[in-house]
Amino acid sequence: MSAATHTHDLDQLPDQISEDELCELAELFKIFGDSTRIRILFALFRSEKNVTEICEALEMNQSAISHQLKILRTSKLISARREGKAMVYSLADDHVKTIIAMGKEHIEE
Amino acid sequence: MSAATHTHDLDQLPDQISEDELCELAELFKIFGDSTRIRILFALFRSEKNVTEICEALEMNQSAISHQLKILRTSKLISARREGKAMVYSLADDHVKTIIAMGKEHIEE
DNA sequence: TTAACATATGAATATATTATCATATGTTTA
DNA sequence: TAAACATATGATAATATATTCATATGTTAA
Lengths: 109, 109
Fold this sequence. Notes:
Helices cover about 65% and strands about 15% of the residues of chain A. By secondary structure, chain A is of the alpha+beta class.
C-alpha cells in the first residue's frame, strides 16, 4: 500500500459519528455482505446490464436476481432505467467501486 | 468529494477478481454489516479496550460482546493481548478505518 | 388486442445469525 | 489453595435473510 493511500485513508477517518450513523453504516455493509449481491455489483463494474444478462452472468434464476436487485436499488448502490422491455441496471456511483477496492486490499494482505 | 480522492478510488479499482475472492469479500463485508460489531470497531478507533470497557461503552452484556469479539478476531479485524486478568482488544490495521471511512462517505451523500 | 417477452413481487421454506443463559476456563489475590 | 474477577463458549430461542415457486405487472410486436 502506498503512502499516498494512507494519507487518503487518514484524511477520511471518522472521528465523530453518531449511533444512528453507525447503524446506517452497518446497513450499508450488510448489502455488500452477500455473495450474490457482490457478484451483481461486480458484473456491473464492466458495463451496465439488463436483468437477463445478469442472470446469465451469475447463472442464477431471475427471481433471485430481481429480489437482490431491489435491495441494491433501495440502498442506492445501483440505478435502473427502462429500455424497451428490459430494465438496465448500472452502478449508482464510484463509491461502490471504492468500497469493494478497499475490501479487496484488506483480504489480499 | 475531492478530485484527489477520486483519483485514489480509481487507482484501486479491481478489474479482475475471482469468484473465490468475491466470496471472501462478501464474508469481510458481512462482518461490518452488524451494528454491534461496527460499534465495537468504532469504540476501538479511539483506543484499545478490554472486554469490560467495551461492554460499558456499548451497554451490552458480556457474553454478546465476547461472541462478537471472537468473530472480529477470526476475521483478523482486531487483535488481542492478555493484560493480567483482562483481554485487551485493538484494531488490527488501518484498513478497518479506511473501510468504515469509505462507507461513511457514501451514506453522507 | 392478444401473445410473447421481460421483470417484479408475495408467500413459503430453508438457512443463517444474534443475543441470552448457564457454565467453563483462565488469572490474580487474599 | 480458595475465592473473586475477567473472559470464553456451548446450547437455545428468536429473528433475519436468501432462494424458490407461482403469478402479477409492464412492454412490444404480430
